Amino acid sequence: MVYELPESELIAQGAEARLHKGTYLGKTVLIKERFEKKYRHPDLDTRLTKERIKAEARAIVRAKTAGVGTPALYLVDFNRRSIFMQFIENATMLKTFIEQHITGRDDDTAKILMNNVTSALGQAVAKLHSKNIVHGDLTTSNILLKDAESLANAKAETDVSEQLVVIDFGLARVESTSEDAAVDLYVLERSLSSAHAQVPELFGLIYKSYQKFFKNKSHLKEVISKYEDVKARGRKRTMVG
């Protein structure tokens, strides 16, 4: 039996889940509801959905423990196939911020903004990978900025890591290998080259920050080696077509 969600507003839908804006214990919340897959046997669908909800909730908690900004987790409701989490009011996607304030600009302010956000993102990914957490879908659409207006008015390079919120841990893993981390980096690199082709410096700056903030340097060395392997395989597939 699938229980209905409390009164809420559908704000987005993807291949695996619906996102609703609602209220829980007097707080405005984001409700991520994994819907039924009719092509699967009901028992199998229920079991797989429960496992994925547990994995996502665990990843959010682990990421926050690692010092990465994530939405606060309020409720995991298996009956409703849902996670109730903090709704980040007035947040801006990093993708939108880059398009509005960095793309197509070559002035000093744009360079400051680019250095600030890439440093913060590299730091966040390093914190995740240092704790063997891989996100699985690192894109600038899955990074929120809590106060984009103040960031856009920055006059100097500064640490803005407290402004970043990483979202959508639906593909995340909390027991990962160095190769998993390398693939995570490669996914980020490819997503940037696709979404922000006019700002080719982005990944290099993020990668530099990632290496700076990755505390375990022997672990980092393994990830870098695996990343070079993954990138080489990616190039080979592209050449073969």
From TrEMBL:
Keyword presence, ATP-binding: yes
One GO BP: tRNA processing
Annotated catalysed reactions: L-seryl-[protein] + ATP = O-phospho-L-seryl-[protein] + ADP + H(+); L-threonyl-[protein] + ATP = O-phospho-L-threonyl-[protein] + ADP + H(+)
KW tRNA processing (keyword) present: yes
All copies of domain Protein kinase, residue ranges: 5-241
GO terms under cellular component: cytosol; EKC/KEOPS complex; nucleus
Molecular-function GO terms, alphabetical: ATP binding; protein serine/threonine kinase activity
Pfam families: Kdo
UniProt xrefs under PANTHER family: EKC_KEOPS COMPLEX SUBUNIT TP53RK, NON-SPECIFIC SERINE/THREONINE PROTEIN KINASE
Family: Belongs to the protein kinase superfamily. BUD32 family.
Name recorded for this polypeptide: non-specific serine/threonine protein kinase
The species this protein was found in: Trichomalopsis sarcophagae
Source lineage: Eukaryota, Metazoa, Ecdysozoa, Arthropoda, Hexapoda
